[in-house]
Amino acid sequence: MAKKILVTGGTGYIGSHTVVELQQAGYEVVIIDNLSNSNADVLEGITRITGKRPVFDKLDCTDFEAMKALFRKYTFDGIIHFAASKAVGESVEKPLMYYRNNLVSLVNLLELMPRHNVKGIVFSSSCTVYGEPDTNPIDENAPVKPATSPYGNTKQINEEIIRDFVHSGAPIKSIILRYFNPIGAHPSAEIGELPLGVPQNLVPYITQTGIGIRQQLSVFGDDYNTPDGSCIRDFINVVDLAKAHVIAIERMLEDKSDEKVEIFNLGTGTGLSVLELIKVFEKVSGKPLNYKIVGRREGDIEQIWAQPDKANNVLGWKAVETIEDTMASAWKWQMRLREKGMM
């Protein structure tokens, strides 16, 4: 019988792409999402890609009574936990919202897992836990530094909660995946990044500027200590990232490791600046981008990219998509949204 996976935040950007990969790998999927930063129409795209509609319950992970009812309704083999508020800038403005959403949701899941014999949880973490790194690239042994934003701090605290809970003797396993910068869309252009309102992430703002929805892109700073003065990130294709979650779930459920908590960096191993990414977009779209340099943004890290050897060699995963194909997929998705009259 197919194993059943609960995907929290499964109508969101990374969640929806992971649901596709899970279903194509033969897993049964139950999605829960409160739709605070996503749209239930994503389910149609998932269904068109996979030929199977995932089960969906509109539900908030911070609602413990609703979560108890969910765990009584279904029997889960494992959980992939995406549901969280995730914008650095917004977290600086609304820290309490971030602490409530991001911490309570995880605590509720962990409390319910042993009661219902759920074996493992894959946690969606972030390279923000490394803060401003001393050197690059960053491997999993790099020090976790004081967070530069409440968002980053919630990821650090959640990692500690998982470790403390497992250390207490809880009969669960966890794989913590520290993402670098997910971008792009499914090559079918059936699903992609669809922020509600003004995008908080770079690539949707680039594509929306390219198509004329936004008048101008702001580049936050050109005076960093980098070759072109703009911030450097490790931009990873969202489908590559989604596939890592399927491998992680399989690793946990099949007890391929004796370790109860494992941490993996998910990135390409290559740093690319914001201005370089803009040039890639202009190349693949054939459109010059209207952008301006503005002051630095609070909470931004100067430069960070991954040393992904552990994910490559231990997890058995590797990022394979090129940055050109990734940006082309983001542009194709934006044009599909225009075709649909969505934006």
TrEMBL record:
Gene3D superfamilies: NAD(P)-binding Rossmann-like Domain, UDP-galactose 4-epimerase, domain 1
Keyword field: Carbohydrate metabolism, Isomerase, NAD
Record SUPFAM superfamilies: NAD(P)-binding Rossmann-fold domains
CDD domains, per the entry: UDP_G4E_1_SDR_e
Residues covered by the NAD(P)-binding domain: 6-327
Cofactor: NAD(+)
Protein name (Swiss-Prot/TrEMBL): UDP-glucose 4-epimerase
InterPro entries, per database record: NAD(P)-bd_dom, NAD(P)-bd_dom_sf, UDP_G4E
UniProt catalytic activity: UDP-alpha-D-glucose = UDP-alpha-D-galactose
Top-level taxon: Bacteria
NCBIfam families tied to this protein: galE
